[in-house]
Amino acid sequence: MNRSAIAMSAALGLAVLAGCGSSTEPSAPPTSEDALTTSAPAVTSEPEPAETTEAPTADGPPEMTDEMSEQTEAGSEAFVAYYFDALNAAHIEELDVATLRAMATDECKTCAAFADAAETAPFGEPYAEVRSATAMLFGEDARVKATLEQMSDGQMVPVIVTLTWGDEQWRVKSIQADEQ
Question: Where does the DUF6318 domain start and stop, copy by copy (predicted)?
């Protein structure tokens, strides 16, 4: 796939982020300035870098660590980094997309769009990497404010990833663009 097709697919994937709210009403089309923003509560602390997992190799995605299996802020941050590493592995066809889908709930529309893109038109190269992540726990859920670097153009994209805890593991519940 050529670079312009990759960039277009990446832009389409990120545009999906703007539609990740829980409302069933359609949003107004974004302007070029706010194409990747949604309303979200402001987070006052600066994000601290999350420990990222190793990048995918020829043997597939990195292994899950024990920390990712903990219902803690650090565990949720590590899981978000792992989810995007798995997405990258799916795009370079080193991970079965079914494994990526299993990491998300059925209600995560962005996750479904990411998995669909990896299944139907894999980029052949990594999609995005988590550069920082800061989590807050709320009962069985975690809200992780993260900054992704798109590999196609180096653009930094702030997102909010909501995780839910069940069966002794984290799963992605939603991914939304973060208005800073």
Answer: 49-116
* Nearest CA-CA partner of 160 in 98, 75, 76: 76
In a domain, 15, yes or no: yes
Residue 177 CA neighbour count, 13 Å, CB half = 18
Separation of alpha carbons 98 and 14, rounded Å: 21
Question: Residue 102 half-sphere exposure, CB side, CA atoms within 13 Å?
Answer: 8
Residue 42 or residue 113, greater confidence: 113
| 59 found inside a domain | yes
Give 3-16 pLDDT, tens digit per residue: 444 444 444 454 44
Helix axes 73-91, 109-120, angle to 10 degrees: 30
> Which residue has 């277009």 as its token pair?
8
CA angle 152, 56, 166 (to 5 degrees): 105
Among 35-49, 93-107, 123-137, the minimum mean pLDDT is found in 35-49
**Nearest Cα residue to 102 out of 135, 76, 79, 77:** 79
Sign for the pseudo-dihedral over CA of 13, 120, 59, 165:
positive
